[in-house]
Design a protein that fits this description.
Blueprint: H1 19-45, H2 50-57, H3 61-68, H4 76-85
Helix pairs in contact: 2-3, 2-4
Domain HTH cro/C1-type: 39-97
GO molecular function: DNA binding
Protein name: XRE family transcriptional regulator
Length: 98
């Protein structure tokens, strides 16, 4: 540091980003957090540690931790392995929007 005070700027949308993309990103983040909470709740209900579930699902404990906190977006394959490891069945459905 050169002794200069640290100033904080404002965040502006980049040239390739619009408000719809920002809203979509927030919605995706919320979905990731909901998924993570569901995985964690099921894991705890089964009495499994993160390490145990990660081993059963063929993933690392840090990756499972990131998934449970919404910081990792899993592939369909990972979701399927997690479902099996949680003694559950993965079901994906599409329904008519309200």
């Amino acid at each position: 540091m050169n002794g200069q005070p640290i100033t904080h700027g404002t965040w502006e949308l980049g040239s390739g980003c619009d408000r719809t993309e920002v809203r979509t990103g927030r919605a995706e983040a919320r979905l990731g957090q909901e998924l993570g909470r569901a995985v964690r709740a099921r894991r705890l209900a089964l009495g499994l540690s993160q390490m145990a579930l990660a081993g059963r699902a063929g993933m690392t404990q840090p990756a499972l931790s990131r998934l449970e906190t919404g910081g990792l977006t899993p592939t369909i394959g990972v979701l399927d392995r997690l479902a099996r490891a949680l003694d559950a069945k993965l079901t994906i459905t599409f329904t008519d929007a309200p």
